Structures are given as C-alpha cells and as structure tokens.
Design the sequence.
C-alpha cells in the first residue's frame, strides 16, 4: 500500500514539473500540419514617435510583408484539402528590452485567408502597433508635447520587444498556431 502511494506521489510530481515547463515551441497543436513564419520584409527596427503621431488617430507601425507556411507534419503522408488552414487572427505582445517595466497593451487582430497544405499565405502591411499602443503610455511619453522622455527610466529611448503569433484552424477543425517571432524596435522622440 505504501509503495503504491509513493509511486502515485512520484507520478504527480513528474506531472507538476512537466506541466510547469514552458517554451516558445507550439507543441500543443492538433492535427497533421503546423504553421511557421518563414519570411518577412520591411521589419521596423526604429521609429520616431512624433513622426508616427503626425498621422493623428491613425498612427500605425507595420511589417511590409510576412509569409506563413502550412507544412504537413508527415511529408510522406497523402495530403488533403482538409489540412488547409483558415487563418483567424494574430496577436502582438510587447515586453521591454530596456530597463523599463511599462508596456503597451497587446494587439489582437482578425485576419482572413487560407494557407494551403504544402503552401504559403502572405500578408502585406501587417499592423504590429496601432494608435492604442503608440499614443498611450509608455510610448506617448516620447512625444514632444509630453516631454520627449520616458517618465519611468528618464531615457529618450524606449526599446520594445515585439512577439507575434498567428492562429488558424484546419478545414478538419484542428487549431494551429505559429511559434512566436520576435524583434526589437527602438522608439525615439
């Protein structure tokens, strides 16, 4: 009896340790395909907040072009249209890559299109930050009218790490997502 209880506790401990691990890999995908970001052009690396704000309420930061592949998990299997992925949404989460802690609110947008199995889908001028992120704290601190300095760090530069993930569903009903892609943008007045 004691031995079976000890085995049960050991098994539970392993589940807790394994369940508590995290990574950027998307291992929880269902189905027979996976999505991955394979190419992008026009990635923003620096931005002037006053130039972005000159557009008023329509301030946007965009990626010129981004390509997503739909790859069969088993390249030797017979593929079908049921493995095509209907793209649904993407999210951008922001973290500070400098000493600050304040971040913009996440961006979540709906997208459309089908990524055929063994093929790609591309999006042009994909918005990675909109007015909600750019014209509010902490980035709004860099506007000349607000002093041009991050009130948290005292610096005229805010470096933000962007993390983007895309989500879709196969025609057969399995949810899939890309691993996050990351890049930094340096914001200045």
Sequence:
């Amino acid at each position: 009896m004691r031995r079976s209880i000890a085995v049960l506790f050991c098994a539970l401990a392993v589940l807790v340790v394994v369940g508590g691990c995290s990574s950027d890999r998307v291992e929880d995908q269902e189905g027979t395909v996976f999505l991955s970001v394979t190419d992008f052009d026009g990635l923003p690396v620096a931005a002037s907040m006053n130039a972005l704000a000159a557009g008023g309420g329509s301030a946007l930061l965009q990626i010129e072009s981004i390509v997503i592949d739909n790859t069969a998990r088993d390249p030797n299997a017979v593929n079908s249209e049921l493995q095509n992925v209907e793209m649904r949404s993407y999210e951008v989460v922001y973290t500070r890559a400098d000493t600050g802690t304040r971040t913009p609110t996440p961006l979540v947008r709906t997208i459309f299109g089908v990524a055929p199995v063994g093929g790609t889908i591309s999006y042009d001028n994909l918005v990675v930050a909109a007015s909600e992120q750019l014209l509010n704290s902490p980035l709004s601190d860099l506007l000349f009218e607000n002093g041009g300095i991050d009130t948290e760090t005292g610096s005229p530069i805010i470096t933000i790490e962007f993390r983007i993930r895309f989500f879709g569903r196969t025609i057969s009903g399995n949810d899939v997502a890309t691993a996050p892609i990351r890049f930094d943008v340096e914001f200045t007045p």
Observations:
- The CA atoms of residues 63 and 91 lie 14 Å apart.
- The longest helix spans residues 2-20.
- Confidence is low (pLDDT under 50) at residues 1-28.
